[in-house]
Description:
Helix content is 72%, strand content 0%. The chain has 10 helices and no strands. The protein has helices at residues 2-26, 44-64, 68-94, 105-122, 135-141, 147-164, 166-170, 180-200, 204-229, 233-257.
Amino acid sequence: MEILIRAGRIAFGICLVGLSVQGMFYRDFDPVFLPDASSWLPFHTALEYIWCLILILSGFCIILEKKSREVSLVLGGIFLILFLFCQVPHLLFVDPNGKALGSWTHALKELAFSGGAFVVAGSYSHMTAIRPESRLIKLLEKLIPFGRIFFSITMIAFGIDHFLYTEFVADLVPAWITGHIFWTYFAGVALIGSGVAIITKIKLKLVASLLGIMIFLWFIFLHIPRGIADPYGNRGNEMTSVIQSFGFSGIAFVIAFGSPLRINKSPS
């Protein structure tokens, strides 16, 4: 299953590159990474370009497997810091709608990216040879087991959204598919069930594989058509969903077939 693990890593790397290119096109931080209120930052555009370049380089490191484990660990840490110290305070103390679960969409996606980065890093553990590592890397390694949990929290929250915002979600289902409400509830149950099963490691490979397939089908049949129909509206929001769904499907496959528990170290 190494092929699926590598394909999942590549999907995650492509997602990072894609979001970065999009960010450079619009010359603004994707709200998944920093809240919209970040426009007050000094040298905002310059910082945004630097951030995008960092993500592009990180994405290619993951795709080409060059220092990809270390890069993924650092990315996971950065995303987690941004989630805890930028997204969460903004929602709790600045955003007037911060108490609504729907307002947490961007923040939860950042948590999923943090989890995905740690999951990707963990999938390399069994290939890691003995070599000097910094204290930072050793510290970040301790967060690897939490990667699937961070990702699953987002899936559970999005599943709940399907029940809280049923009409909105149902409108996203392609017109040629009948029973929009049924599929909305089905997807909600699937997301919640997948998240719980992944956290508790119940049929982990099967559940994560099915989750990856489901999200990939959304990528093909839902997000790509919507992205093509409206590539620039709302700062390219539909194209952002295309890129993110591709990356999230990759994370699910890495969770399914990556194994952070198999660590073979060379004898000293």
